[in-house]
Amino acid sequence: MSSLPKHLAQCQFCSDISQAVGESPIGTAGYYDYWLVVELPQPWSEIALDQNEALKPYLAAIKALVYEKGVKLRPLAIAPDPDYSQPDYTRVLFYRRPSELFSRYRREEYLIPNTELGNLASALLLEPEKLPNFKEYQQENHYSYDLLVCTHGNVDAACSRYGYPLYQNWRQQANSQVRVWRCSHFGGHRFAPTAISLPDGRYWGRLTPEAIDFITKQEGNLSDLKLYYRGWTGLDQWGQIAEREIWLNRGWDWLHYLKMGEVIEADQTNKNWARVRITYSSQDGSDRGSYEAKIEKTAELTTAGESGLPPHKSVVKQYQCLLA
Q: What distance lies between CA 85 and its chain's CA centroid?
């Protein structure tokens, strides 16, 4: 493994090192069909939802969905907020992939008595026939976006150092269309400050206060995608790299297209290349088609996987994408 440059050897935060060496954030988002987002008071342990008493009886079964059955589920904690939250109740945001081709996850929102949280989670994930029992707790949601900013310093200091100031700024910019939450860790602290936008399911990193308009109003220079965009969670790593390239070519309208991805072939051993197909359709079906892309490794960078002194070194591959 190569060494970090001398001027980076004393950097404390992994995100500073990653940015200094020019690491691209694309292809570092998760790949999920379902999201379970639960209000949970701080402080959070490293695995935040494990500390919720109402969830504990169901955690083994929920984890089995992910680790044994391969269900693409992402649980997350969000901190209660005086403007959004209600004493003795827990807000639950549940998102599911609506179809094979899609652009946004389908959202369900509940405000549930604290003692009923585990039962609702079980109904959402394990016993869907019981969901009608919770109809009275379902909420109307008129927000276009929920922005989840990682401030989980218990996992990596970069997320609190850079995530919390961004959260404070964005929270002041929140309005009737956008809610902003403090969120538990979801990976990629070397791109801090980092955030997820839902229901579109996009990961973002190296964010600035101004980026909120880029994400929620679709304003700004589209070339900034290369600075901020980590990928769309409806696709795997290879698909995320290709999807960004298509977005840069198609413009902002691409956000509204239904899409799905498949890997045609890939270097499974070294992950140096892949060929992928992105199939798409406009909302009304009048514009359909597919792109094929060849993704190839262009370089390897030595960066930091975690914050601290000395830096925890990590080698990451960088890729280019060529659309057919």
A: 22
